[in-house]
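Protein data:
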Amino acid sequence: MRAVPRHVACVMDGNGRWAQRRSLPRTAGHRAAETTVIDVIEAARGAGVEWLSLYAFSTENWGRPGDEVDYLMRLVRRIVRKHAPLLLARGIRCRFLGVTDPRIPRALARDFADLATLTGDNRGMTLTVAFDHGGRRDIVEAARSLIRDGVPAEEVTESRFAAHLPLPDTPDVDLVIRTSGEQRISNFMLWKVAYAEWVFPEVLWPDFRAADFLACLHTYRRRDRRFGGLPPRTNGEPR
């Protein structure tokens, strides 16, 4: 097994509870999460992670109160514009998974596209921000794409299906980190996490730091990834 996972994905959970414990509005938790995002990006890059995916906003998050959603849209736009120079200087390629709902402000969608273009030639770590993302929707869209292309049912293979998913060059996820102790997939990159290892640190996302991220990588290194098979026999021992 690789000492460092090639692709790490983070479900950034716990912003609301972080704010609630401090008797602050939920928006304060989202604002505090900015520091963690940059800390984790730097830690992943420094550790040699090649692909980092962050779950920023799900298709289900549209069901939150309107004022919170509006705040998130403004906050994410500010973060993107503020940190674009850093991401470019670090050689990080930025991409966005989702971003199809017409409720996304045009200015924010334009900033996403501009950042992807600005960093498109970078050859360092690839940062994928899942925004307006839903794993089930991705699978449905891939099936529709196959049908539109007239692919016969008997010719549909896993590899061919995967080629119709958004951002098809993205490798499978090796490690998923979900903060706050919650243990759910939450419709996140369902196809790509099929054989991922999962770690559920109790710390809330706004308090999650580089040391916590590196501790998750250490946990990953101790795992025995079998992919449904059995470990090799040693010293003639039966499997």
Notes: The first strand starts at residue 7 and ends at 11. DSSP finds seven helices and six strands in the chain. The domain at 7-221 is CATH 3.40.1180.10 (Undecaprenyl pyrophosphate synthetase). Helices lie at 15-21, 26-47, 66-89, 106-118, 135-148, 158-162, 210-221.
